[in-house]
# Entry
Amino acid sequence: MNFELHEDQVQLRDSVTRLLADNYSFEQRRAIAATAEGTSPAVWRQLCGLGVSGLRIAEEHGGFGGSAADLAVVMQAFGQALLTEPFLASAVLGATALSLSGDATSHALLPQVASGERTVAWASDEAAGRHAPCWVETRATRTGGAWQLTGTKACVLNAPQANAFIVSARVSGAPADAPGLGLFLVNAGSEGLGCRGYRLIDDTPAGDLEFNNVVAQPLGDPADPVSGGRVIEATRRAGMAAVCADAVGAMEGAYQLTVSYLNTRKQFGRLIGENQSLRHRVADMMVELEIARSMAMLAASAIDDPASAENEDLARAKFIIGRHGRTLCQSAIQLHGGIGMTEEYAVGHYLRRITVIDQLFGDSANQISRLAGMLSTTTRPLETS
# Structure
């Protein structure tokens, strides 16, 4: 399989990289993160102007119909810049859920998401679920012809900035059941909706949502017992592939900072990068980066190729990238010494980003558990004579 970037992907990468270099340096990012919103409307508008907000939305809905491999190119650039804008929340998770819902409400909203005019946030995780994608206690009930939601959602990415939320809710069944789930659209500011905003450790805005008989508009048919679960799983897969590429970008940023530091910092009249043991550490970091890059390509291929064993590939990629990403970033901090632990230097922020990514859509332990479950159902038992 050819993993070389084609001409359009190179141009896309270069355009996004130039924009971020001019408008989103580490110092500029620190200033943005220090604001009340934690994001930059100006940077978001410029990114939308490049068309990245509609990258995964079909052309008939105002997007570009790009592949997961195209998305990986953009996410790597965002990871290296430590972007906090609502791209993952809206242009990946929200856009995927809306595209797969396939009803009139979704079709009407997709062009606005593609242009960046509106941002949506994916609200599916709940505190009691602990990485279980189908654990949903939030209830949807129909009263007088209108659907109402009651429950809570945890760690909704970019919730304080979102114009609307795509919410998973249980129409029937027990909290852990895959059947009986539906998706609903809730506008920000709706009566009975509460949002407690906060920042994740990498400065990404997030929030917990509370629904108290909030009026919601169904996406798709809530009476269909399986369609909601399928959309939730597909949206989760899209998010996993995206954050794998984001992590590779963060790893590359930490690696480049470390190489630059070792080639400029002097001790006892010589560059510390001339120390053989440190050169070996950097070589190990390069190996970890290239392994992660390959796994991110595998994750993107799992989304683009319907024939692939995408669940296994994604779980494997997420686990391996999480493990190698943490090791690389910890090595980067150690090789920097004391400066690597300061708030004012970028290398420590890359470890924070990797830590957050590891928790999204199931941490490393969860991915191992999922892989074990998948393999146990596909491996034939040994026959005894």
User: Anything to note?
Assistant: Residues 121-224 form a domain with the Butyryl-CoA Dehydrogenase, subunit A; domain 2 fold (CATH 2.40.110.10). The chain has a mean pLDDT of 91. The chain has eleven helices and nine strands. The chain has three domains: 7-119, 121-224, 229-378.
